Amino acid sequence: MITGPADKTPFAITVLIATHNRAGQLRESIDAVLRQRTPASLRWELLVVDNASRDRTREVIRAAVGRASVPVRYLFEGTLGKSRALNVGLAAASGSVIALTDDDVSPADDWVATAAVALDRWGVDGAGGRILPRWEVEPPAWVLESRRLLDSLAIMEFDEAGMMPVPGSRHPQVWGANMVFRRDALLALGGFDVRLGPVGGKRHCEEDIDMVRRVLESGRRVVYDPALTVFHRVPRSRLRPAYFRRIMWDMGEGSALVAPLAPGGRRLFGVPRWRLRHLACLMPRAIWSRLSRRPDAFDDVLNWSWEAGLVWGYLKRAARERGRSLASVLADPISAAQSARPPR
Q1: How far apart are CA 204 and CA 250, in angstroms?
Q2: pTM of the prediction?
């Protein structure tokens, strides 16, 4: 473990970041955290959990320890999965409040100071706030005009506070790039669901949404407070259609890996047959929308990408449950036929 100044006094806040193979991005995030303007009486620490990185992540954190005026700790989690890394950090954190952000995010200079008072001010166990974009290049209009695309970039720009849940699942929401929770509340719920969230380069999602939902279902309260502000650094590579198609594919795949299966449903290669029919219907629609230049054509493409990822996820899930490779499952028509036959 790499660690900064030793101190046995309990901390008010632990800033927790899970990272995987993003040493360059992580350096910017750590610099922003270490620039925080906090009251002299506020005791806080930075805890970074390295999720099986193979780059210079460890060296970046070692360098941060040498220049930090607050304790900086490093932990390593060798099993891929952001939720696993967050749970390791949660177990090791010294703070009574956990402030979570990401390795491609720069918190505002007053973020830690605001997090220190937000929960008590609202009388809640969890809070989130604004996630403002820091564009590497000027974004195209087709991105700025789409709430769906801005959501997939984790942009949350709403200026009014509100208690969760927002009716109809509208905005604002509390997302993982900017979340603050009482540590006891997270521990009482067993931490983050390790079936959810990014795994390596796969952008499986919703570990943050799931946590907010479970906190609310436990009878605790969560607020959206725009005073909590971070800046999400958006590189040029994320402003291309291919990026959004991949994100939708990964989100669909992740959903299939954890979705409950209806008992007795007809399946082919482990995929609900109605899903295959739906995917077959979406493809010509997406193609026709693009050819006819409909204004919502890209939405149709994204819908197909999500559904295709979902089907792929079901295929991977079937292979995992049978302890076989995906290729062997696809090459076995007898098993496929049996999974498609309704039970007697």
Answers
A1: 6
A2: 0.89
Per the CB < 8 A criterion, the answer to whether 226 and 159 are in contact is: yes
List, as one string, the DSSP characters of 8-76. -SPEEEEEEEEESS-HHHHHHHHHHHHT----TT--EEEEEEEES--SSHHHHHHHHHHH-SS-EEEEE
Strand bridging mode 267-268 / 179-182? unpaired
Assess contact for 92 and 2: CB atoms under 8 A.
no
Question: What type of residue is 259?
Answer: A
Distance CA 108, CA 341 (A): 56
What is the Cα–Cα distance from 62 to 85, expressed in whole angstroms?
Answer: 19
Using DSSP's 3-state secondary structure scheme, residue 232 falls into strand
Q: How far apart are CA 50 and CA 80, in angstroms?
A: 10
Q: What is the mean pLDDT of each run of 10 residues along the chain (344 residues)?
A: 56 97 96 97 97 96 93 96 97 97 98 98 98 97 95 96 86 96 98 94 90 97 98 97 96 88 77 89 85 84 94 90 69 49 37
Identify the CA nearest to 275 among candidates 300, 249, 298, 307: 307
Indicate the CATH number of 11-237 among 3.40.50.10320, 1.10.10.10, 3.90.550.10, 2.120.10.80.
3.90.550.10
